[in-house]
Design goal:
Blueprint: H1 4-24, H2 27-41, H3 53-67, H4 81-88, H5 92-105, H6 118-122, E1 129-132, E2 135-138
Antiparallel strand pairs: 1-2
Helix pairs in contact: 1-2, 1-3, 2-3, 3-4, 3-5
Protein name: DUF6398 domain-containing protein
Domain DUF6398: 13-116
Length: 145
Amino acid sequence: MKDPKMLEKKERLLQLVRSFCQEYLDEEYEQLSMKMVEKLGRKRTVPFMSGKLEVWAAGIIHAIGTVNFLFDKSFQPYATVHDICAHFGVAQSTTSQKSKLLRDMFKMDYFNNEFATQRSQQSNPFNNLVSINGFIVPTELFKNK
């Protein structure tokens, strides 16, 4: 049986990430953020049961944004760390620490598909590489000419 207090906090956290995504980002970021909240809620010890939910929400957006180049002006959508921190009323250092904790917890890295946007997945430079007998080889070598 689910703890009602946990369900209440999870719903509040979902509302927080949804509101940021709807104001600054897009539906894809919203779906990825909600996916992370759901995964956190399934942990044996639910991490967001302690600490401020605003810090967790900021950390979630920051973690997903970090691996999807959210802070790079040449990508869309684009937001700054300041946008995230100002929206949730949290400190940048606290947000960065929570983001790092989440990226470590879920083994998130650039081009990791679980929390990657479609654009990140499509622009992954490793998509065109294969391993043959331990050697990394571009797939172009195998295309018919």
